[in-house]
Recover the amino acids of this structure.
C-alpha cells in the first residue's frame, strides 16, 4: 500500500512538474501582416496550420509589437522591455542594423527569456533570423551573438534578409544612392560646368589639374558605391552555425526546408528535457523566395507563395510535437515582429508587401497596421481552445509569461514592461494588465495607448505622425520607410486622439466637440508619458552612426576561404547539428 501511495505521489509530482515547466516553441514571422492569415480574416491565402493553431488555443486580436521595425521589436520581444531601455533604438534614419560587421547590438547586460530558461535547465535554440548584432571590438568576441544571450544553439542568418541578398531583386539602398552619390555628382557636375564657362569667358584661370581632380573625385564616389553594392551580398547575407560561417553568400534554395529540418532535429534531440525553440522565419521579408513546391501556387504572387511555405513549415513543427507526444506539454506561440511592409516596391514597380487588414499604415510607423500583429498561443489542456481575446497585449508579454512557467524569478534590477499572459489566457482575469502602452518611432515617443480600468474605450494619442507620400498613400513610399524626425513628420498640438475601440481604422480624430472629455483624457495620457520618461536612464545608443557603420575588422568570413569570403559548408557538413 505504501509503495502504491509513493508511486501515485511520484506520478502526480511528475505531472505537476510537466504542467509548470512546459516546452516553449516560438514561431515568429518577419513582416507578416495581420490581414495575411486565414484566422484573422484572410479569404485567399491558405494558412491551414496557423488556423489550426488558433482553433486549438487563444487568438489575441489586439496583440501589439513594441516597435514597428525589426531590430528594436525583436530586442523588446526577447527582453520584455521597451527597446529604448537597452539603447536598441535610433535617433537617425537608420533604425536597424544593415551590416553584420557593425559594433552595436543587444547589450550583454540585457537578460533574454532564453537566458532565464537556460538557467532553469532548458535546452535552447534559435533557428533563423537574429538581427541583434554580432561583435563589439573584434570579429571573434561575439559579444552580441545569440549564444551569448542564452541560446545553446544557433543556425541561421545573423543580420536580415534584404533585396540585395538575392541577385536580380534590386537594392534597398536606392535612396542612399540619391543622397550620397547622385546629389554629390550633381554638385560636381554643376561645379565643373561653371568652371568651364568661366574659363571659356576668360574670367577665371582654372588649371587643368583642378578638372582632373574633380573628375577623379566623381569616379571615386561612384566606384565606392558600386563596390558596396557588388560586395554587400557576400559580406552580409550568409548563414552561421553557432560561431562559424556555414554558407557565404546564403543560397535561397530550399532555405525554409533547411531551417525547418534544423528545428525538427532540435525537438527530436530534446524529448527528455524541457526545451525552448525559437524558429525565427525569414519569410515574408523581402527578398521574397520560396521553394519549387510553393512557387506560383498562391493567389498573391511571390508574397503569397512565401506565406504558404511558412505555414507549411509551421505544420511540420506541430506534426513533430504530435508524433513525439509533446503537444500537451508544449506552449506554442505564433506572431510577427511587426506589420506588413506596405512601402515595399520592386525595381520593376511591383508591390511586394502584405496586408494589414482594415488597419492604417504598416511597417516602420505606429498606425495600427504597423504594430497590430497576429498573436496565437496554444497549450492543450491548459489554455482553453477556440478563444478570441480582445484586450491590449504586447509581444513583450512573452518574457514574464515563460519565465513564470519555467519557474524563474523575474530580474529585480530592471523594469520589465511585459505582463504574464496566463491569467488572461485561462480566463482568471478578464482585462489586460496593460493600462498604458507606449509606442516608439525609433527613439522618439510617438504615441500613447490608454485602456482605462473602468471603461471599454481604448484611447490612442499621437504626438506626431509620419507624412505619407504621395498624399493619401498608406505608407511613406518616397523614402521606402517612415522616418521619425524633422520634415518627415507632422507634430500635433494638441495630440491626435482616437478611440481605437470604436475607430480601429484611425480615420476620425476626436475633438473637444466630438469628445467632451477630450482635454481630460489627453492630460492623463500626457502624465503617463511623463512618468514613463522618468524611468528611462541614459544608456549607450547601440544604433548610433558609429555603431551601425560597417567595420572591416569585424567582418566575418568562411574559415579557410582566403580573401573571397565564399564557401558552402552546408554541402560538406550536411545539416547535422553539433
Amino acid at each position: 500500500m505504501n509503495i502504491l501511495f509513493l508511486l501515485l505521489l511520484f506520478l502526480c509530482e511528475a505531472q505537476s512538474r510537466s504542467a509548470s515547466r512546459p516546452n516553449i516553441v516560438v514561431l515568429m514571422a518577419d513582416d507578416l501582416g495581420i490581414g495575411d492569415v486565414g484566422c484573422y480574416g484572410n479569404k485567399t491565402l491558405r494558412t491551414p496550420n496557423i488556423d489550426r493553431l488558433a482553433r486549438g488555443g487563444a487568438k489575441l486580436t489586439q496583440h501589439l509589437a513594441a516597435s514597428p521595425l525589426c531590430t528594436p521589436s525583436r530586442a523588446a520581444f526577447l527582453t520584455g522591455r521597451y527597446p529604448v531601455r537597452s539603447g536598441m533604438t535610433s535617433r537617425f534614419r537608420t533604425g536597424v542594423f544593415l551590416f553584420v560587421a557593425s559594433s552595436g547590438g543587444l547589450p550583454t547586460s540585457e537578460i533574454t527569456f532564453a537566458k532565464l530558461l537556460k538557467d532553469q535547465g532548458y535546452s535552447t535554440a534559435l533557428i533563423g533570423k537574429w538581427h541583434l548584432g554580432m561583435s563589439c571590438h573584434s570579429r571573434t568576441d561575439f559579444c552580441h551573438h545569440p549564444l551569448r544571450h542564452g541560446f545553446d544553439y544557433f543556425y541561421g542568418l545573423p543580420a536580415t534578409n534584404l533585396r540585395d541578398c538575392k541577385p536580380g531583386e534590386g537594392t534597398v539602398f536606392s535612396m542612399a544612392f540619391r543622397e550620397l552619390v547622385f546629389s554629390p555628382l550633381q554638385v560636381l557636375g554643376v561645379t565643373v560646368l561653371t568652371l568651364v564657362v568661366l574659363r571659356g569667358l576668360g574670367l577665371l584661370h582654372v588649371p587643368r589639374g583642378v578638372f582632373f581632380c574633380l573628375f577623379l573625385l566623381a569616379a571615386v564616389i561612384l566606384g565606392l558605391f558600386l563596390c558596396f553594392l557588388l560586395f554587400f551580398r557576400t559580406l552580409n547575407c550568409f548563414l552561421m552555425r553557432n560561431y562559424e560561417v556555414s554558407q557565404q553568400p546564403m543560397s535561397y534554395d530550399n532555405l525554409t526546408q533547411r531551417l525547418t529540418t534544423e528545428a525538427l532535429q532540435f525537438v527530436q534531440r530534446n524529448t527528455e528535457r524541457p526545451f525552448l525553440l525559437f524558429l525565427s522565419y525569414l519569410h515574408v521579408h523581402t527578398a521574397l523566395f520560396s521553394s519549387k513546391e510553393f512557387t506560383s501556387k498562391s493567389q498573391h504572387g511571390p508574397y503569397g507563395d512565401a506565406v504558404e511555405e511558412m505555414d507549411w513549415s509551421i505544420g511540420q513543427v506541430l506534426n513533430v510535437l504530435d508524433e513525439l507526444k509533446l503537444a500537451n506539454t508544449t506552449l506554442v506561440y505564433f506572431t510577427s515582429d511587426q506589420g506588413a511592409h506596405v512601402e515595399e516596391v520592386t525595381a520593376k514597380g511591383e508591390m511586394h508587401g502584405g496586408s494589414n487588414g482594415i488597419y492604417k499604415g504598416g511597417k516602420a510607423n505606429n498606425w495600427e497596421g504597423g504594430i497590430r500583429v497576429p498573436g496565437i498561443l496554444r497549450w492543450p489542456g491548459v489554455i482553453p481552445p477556440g478563444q478570441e481575446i480582445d484586450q491590449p497585449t504586447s509581444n513583450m508579454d512573452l518574457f514574464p509569461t515563460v519565465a513564470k512557467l519555467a519557474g524563474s524569478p523575474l530580474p529585480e534590477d530592471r523594469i520589465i514592461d511585459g505582463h504574464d499572459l496566463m491569467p488572461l489566457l485561462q480566463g482568471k482575469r478578464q482585462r489586460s494588465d496593460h493600462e498604458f502602452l507606449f509606442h516608439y518611432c525609433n527613439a522618439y515617443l510617438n504615441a500613447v495607448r490608454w485602456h482605462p480600468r473602468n471603461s471599454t474605450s481604448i484611447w490612442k494619442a499621437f504626438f506626431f505622425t509620419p507624412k505619407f507620400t504621395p498624399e493619401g498613400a498608406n505608407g511613406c513610399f518616397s523614402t521606402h520607410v517612415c522616418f521619425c524626425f524633422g520634415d518627415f513628420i507632422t507634430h500635433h498640438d494638441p495630440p491626435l486622439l482616437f478611440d481605437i475601440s470604436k475607430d480601429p481604422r484611425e480615420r476620425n480624430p476626436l475633438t473637444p466637440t466630438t469628445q467632451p472629455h477630450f482635454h481630460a483624457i489627453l492630460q492623463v495620457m500626457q502624465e503617463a508619458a511623463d512618468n514613463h520618461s522618468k524611468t528611462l536612464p541614459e544608456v549607450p545608443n547601440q544604433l548610433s552612426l558609429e555603431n551601425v557603420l560597417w567595420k572591416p575588422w569585424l567582418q566575418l568570413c568562411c574559415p579557410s576561404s582566403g580573401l573571397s569570403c565564399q564557401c558552402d559548408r552546408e554541402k560538406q557538413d550536411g545539416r547535422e547539428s553539433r
